[in-house]
Design a protein that fits this description.
The chain has five helices and nine strands. The chain is of the alpha+beta class. Helix 3 links the parallel strand 4 and strand 5. The longest helix has 17 residues. The radius of gyration is 15 Å and the shape is globular.
Length: 167
C-alpha cells in the first residue's frame, strides 16, 4: 500500500476542491458551499486537544484578523466528535471554526487519510495538511504534509496574502 489511500489522491493546485458536507461543533451543517465567495484555508488535523493540534489551532486563532483582512476564512477538520470539538474550542478559547468528520469522508476526499508510521507501527490516520481554496472553489495551494506545525500558520497566511494580492 502506498502512502496515499488507493481511491483518493491529494488534490493539487488548479483542481476543483472536493465537496464535503460536515457539521461544526454546534451540529450545524457546513458544506463547502457555505464558504463560497471567500478564500478558505481548510486545514486537517489528527486529534483535538493533542499538543501539535492545540498549537496549530491557537496559532490560526491568533492570526484570524490577518486572514479576515484577506477575505479568508480558516476552518479546521478532524475525525473528532462534535462534543470533543466543543470541549477543545472552550478549553483553548479558539476562534477558528472546527468541523467534525467522524466518517473521514472529507479527509478521504482530500487524500489526507493515509497510512502512517509511528514508532514502527503502521496505521491509517490524518496527515496534517492545509488547502487554500479560492472564492470559486479552486484549490490554489496545498501544504501536505505540513512540515512544521509551529510556523505553518504564518506560512499559510503569507500564501493567502500572496494569492489575494494578484486578484
Amino acid at each position: 500500500m502506498t502512502a496515499q489511500t488507493q481511491d483518493h489522491k491529494t488534490p493539487q493546485p488548479g483542481d476543483k476542491a472536493p465537496l464535503f458536507d460536515l457539521v461544526n461543533a454546534n451540529g450545524e451543517a457546513r458544506p463547502l458551499s457555505c464558504y463560497a465567495g471567500t478564500w478558505l484555508v481548510l486545514y486537517f488535523y489528527p486529534k483535538a486537544s493533542t499538543p501539535g493540534c492545540t498549537r496549530e489551532a491557537q496559532g490560526f486563532t491568533s492570526l484570524l484578523p490577518d486572514f479576515a483582512a484577506c477575505n479568508a476564512t480558516v476552518v479546521g477538520v478532524s475525525p473528532d466528535s462534535c462534543k470533543a470539538i466543543t470541549g477543545f474550542i472552550s478549553k483553548q478559547q479558539l476562534g477558528v471554526e472546527l468541523l467534525s468528520d467522524p466518517e473521514r469522508s472529507a479527509a478521504k476526499a482530500y487524500g489526507v487519510y493515509q497510512l502512517k508510521k509511528n514508532y514502527g507501527k503502521e496505521s491509517m490516520g490524518i496527515v496534517r495538511s492545509t488547502f487554500i481554496i479560492d472564492p470559486k472553489g479552486v484549490i490554489r495551494q496545498v501544504f501536505s504534509p505540513v512540515k512544521k506545525v509551529d510556523t505553518h500558520m504564518q506560512e499559510a497566511l503569507e500564501a493567502v496574502r500572496s494569492l489575494t494580492a494578484h486578484v
